[in-house]
């Protein structure tokens, strides 16, 4: 079914207020959840609200906590998230990175002891819409087997990279698994299979059936062993720079998805060494080559990361935001 964006946001906000969030917290979080569904990332939009409220009820998210500055050195700052609301913490951290970049040309903020930020692309879009290159990532509890193993031992550690380009920025938002567990859930709820194999079933066979991957917990890393190595690198950098938890630490504590995680937010001024016109000309050369590449399917346009989001956003604001019927009814009752 499809609902208007404002109605979606209103229903989510009501559920969050009922869960004990303040007016300001509920406004920020409902906006982000609704925007995620609007942009086609349903798994971290409406669908994630019941789990977030469950974590609040379990005491895994501290509604009274605010992130605090721990240390600062030049363009780098480190904050403790105090197990506060992940969206609120990440919004503040990414904004602070931009402020540092305005002063130094580059801003780097690390955040330890925080909670799930929902859609990581939210903060990359915020940064690029402020005119800066954005890079942000988070570690997670173990959700993917390290290459050559059978059981989850590393996180799928989503990373986002955004680069300004006219009114159509490049925004890459991806997990280090071929598909996130959220994407598996959305595909399963829709009664569909994945377009490409996304993991192994319990018998060790590659499969496109999302439920079989969810059962085995053997999600496939991007690039096979390369993605596995990249996931480890992202975890090490996030946890070391923030003096925070690794996947191994979160596994031992066992408090669900991303509770106590470590995050990094980087903002870079793209015009430090060149003008806006020069940077756009540089980007245009590559983007034109990408857009004009010979198509496998003549009827299917080639797009770069970010274009699809803008198209889905435009469509959702005129035709309504797609929501899963059962999830919609569940959230309305919260």
TrEMBL record:
The protein's UniProt keywords, in alphabetical order, are: Oxidoreductase
The domain of life is Bacteria
* Main enzyme class: oxidoreductase
Q: What Enzyme Commission number does this protein have? A: 1.1.1.130
Query: What protein am I looking at?
Result: 3-dehydro-L-gulonate 2-dehydrogenase
The protein's gene is named yiaK
